[in-house]
Amino acid sequence: MNIGLCGFGAIGKQRLQALERLKREGNPIDEIYVYDPCIKKPLNSEYTLWCKSLEKMEDKNIDLAIIATPHDAAVALAEQILGWGCKVLIEKPFGRSYEEAEYLYNLSSVNQLFIGFNYRFFDGIEQLLEDTNNGMFGKLININMILGHGGSPGDEKTWKLNPEMGGGGVFADLGVHLLDLLQQVSITIYPLSGKSWRGLWNTGIDEEVHLLLTNKDDTIINIQTSIVRWLNTFRIEINGTEGYGVVEGRGKNYRNQTYIRGKKWGWLESGKSQKESEELVLTTDCSNSFYKELDSILFGTKHYAFPCSDMEALSVMALYEKCKEVIH
């Protein structure tokens, strides 16, 4: 099979690394083609060929096209590439609004369009979701989720902080990851209230958002997303009547990811402090999430996580729009 990669920024490079690993391992990938009109210098890789135009890529009989571009360009690219009849993976979010997501959903065929929610494939997240859905923690009391970073000087000039190019700001770019993970635990989520802050970059987008939600079981859900969090932070806590699980970190400058489980009154059974009674389930550098996601899409390899379908992503965008209504 032939793979096309549209966009060669930070995420595009990580996607290419995953594809090259799959090819090196002997999977049936014939050629990998890359197209990015903003990059003039061809790649120096034994596994990858450069396309000078999207039309040149279309001629290569692409089996899977990966769209890793700024959000404003992704929709038009997906519209065109879906017409090729190949499978398409578009990086999150699924459009900048529910309307854009619904438009692409209606253009796609069954099992043709996937959305890149690679957090599903973090080893710690997979195990946390499996434990939660298997009832290990009992009835859920609360879920707390934090995802934030501080960016770099000059970010205000980039597409991510541009309201038109990037969309709705931090919650559109980062928050949808957390909404997707929430829907792996509970399908029906109700946003209750939210507060945004936008006073540093001053480009018109939300820079920090705190959101309170619940579900049909009255679980208390707290979400925080930020691009003004100077210590890069990723933390998910799920607390229930029988115990809890905590995932922290997501690799690189967020530090390695750990997954820790604890039992209700673990100190009583162990004779140690509650902290000492906890179990470190795993530690990971999170370097294989793109690999696992693409392995599942291309070759059907089974993991606890499944690739995000267009229908699931459309549901995430519907929840995103409901969240926007309560954020002030």
Task: Give structural notes.
With 328 residues, the protein is an alpha/beta fold. 33% of the residues lie in helices and 27% in strands. The protein has 11 helices and 15 strands. It has helices at residues 10-24, 54-58, 71-82, 98-107, 123-133, 163-166, 170-182, 266-270, 274-277, 289-299, 310-326; strands at 2-6, 31-35, 48-50, 64-67, 87-91, 113-116, 140-148, 189-197, 208-215, 220-226, 233-240, 243-248, 257-263, 279-284, 308-309. The strands form 2 sheets. Strands 8-9-10-7-11-12-13-14 form an 8-stranded mixed beta sheet. A 7-stranded mixed beta sheet has the order 3-2-1-4-5-6-15, sandwiched between helices. Strand 11 (233-240) and strand 12 (243-248) form a beta hairpin. Helix 1 (10-24) crosses helix 10 (289-299), helix 3 (71-82) packs parallel to helix 4 (98-107) and helix 4 (98-107) packs antiparallel against helix 11 (310-326). The termini are far apart.
Kindly state the percentage of residues in helix: 25-40%
The chain-level mean pLDDT equals 95
The strand order across the widest sheet is 8-9-10-7-11-12-13-14
Number of helices: 11
**Helix-strand string:** EHEEHEHEHEHEHHEEEEEEHHEHEH
Distance between the termini: 48 Å
Strand content: 25-35%
The structural class is alpha/beta
Low-pLDDT regions: none
For the largest beta-sheet, the strand count, sense and barrel status come to: 8 strands, mixed
State the total count of DSSP E strands.
15
| Estimated radius of gyration | 20 Å
Shape: globular
